[in-house]
Amino acid sequence: MHTEVKHPLIQHKLSLVRDKTTGSKLFRELIGEISKFLAYEALREIPTEPIDVETPLMTAHCAHVKGEIVLVPILRAGIGMLDALSELVPFARIGFLGMYRDPVTSRPIEYYAKMPEATDDSTAIIIDPMLATAGSSIAAADILKRRGFKKIILICIVSCPEGLAKMEEVHPDVNIYTACVDERLNDHNYILPGLGDAGDRLFGTK
Questions:
Q1: Is 105 a catalytic residue?
Q2: What CATH number does the domain containing 187 carry?
């Protein structure tokens, strides 16, 4: 299942992210801001448990997040979303998945994986700005499931119908949160209209 988060502030910031004249510094800031909005929505139903807190006046009946949250950026572009989500969920643990897309086959090639151990109540959140062919996201979910994670969420800035359909076919139990579902993929498997290569724009490379 996927959720397209159409909040006006997200859409405003997304227009600036798409703009080819937006420089790397502003691009990074905007990606972080959009990521926080998406994470708020993605974690709306996260389980909590009651806790009593002593205020200066009396006991307050409050709630704490129940279970562990693990943030899993797909390198390298997912790093551009990590700081913002770490600020939002400072108690989260962090895993890293390194993948690149084969230029001929467009299939993901894994080159690095370092992950906290899963617990019975872990929620793993895959973060990657783009969901294009869904190859990397599918591979990431495969790895997480093999390592014992049962609840997985995917947060991406921009997606497309082809990638969403493929991800939902292979991993129907992974909930996807995206700021926009774009028109389609082009012949080179880039999202249209998209925002270009997110990694290059985040880090000022080509």
A1: yes
A2: 3.40.50.2020
